[in-house]
Design brief:
It contains three helices and five strands. By secondary structure, the chain is of the alpha+beta class. The chain has a single domain (2-17, 25-131), classed as SH3 type barrels (Roll). The two termini are 20 Å apart.
Length: 134
């Protein structure tokens, strides 16, 4: 009975934490945006070194942000044979942007994970005291 209870507790703890998965690389598919003000806010949020994919009338260009000003966005597009090609894109031609920050936020365990871990450890301690050596 106790073994079943302990197995159930561990199974519930594992299921409630969910399954971990690695983030897949971002495909350069970019949605075209009609709201120019929202697009301008996203472009202004870009920092040097951010990996971006920019949609224009000519297609999608991806690379790393080098510089931006009020009129243009400058990115380095990596070349297959080493090096990079510097591309200047006028802001008026940008129809959509997708980016990945060079400094992603740090991921920390949630409070829920800590509570579940405490319940599991507490269950093990109670089980050890009840059925451990006397």
């Amino acid at each position: 009975m106790v073994k079943k209870l302990l197995t159930l507790m561990v199974a519930l703890a594992v299921l409630s934490l969910g399954m971990a998965r690695a983030d897949e690389p971002v495909a350069p598919a970019v949605a075209v945006v009609r709201d120019r003000a929202a697009l301008a806010v996203h472009i202004d949020a870009l920092e040097e070194g951010d990996h971006v994919a920019i949609a224009t009338d000519d297609g999608v260009v991806s690379g790393d942000v080098v510089d931006k000003d009020t009129d243009d966005l400058v990115i380095d597009r990596p070349l297959i044979q080493d090096g990079a090609e510097r591309v200047t894109i006028p802001r008026s031609k940008i129809q959509g942007v997708r980016y990945q920050s060079a400094n992603p936020p740090q991921v920390r365990p949630s409070n829920r994970a800590w509570i579940i871990a405490a319940v599991v450890v507490g269950g093990f301690i109670v089980w050890a005291k009840m059925f451990g050596p006397r």
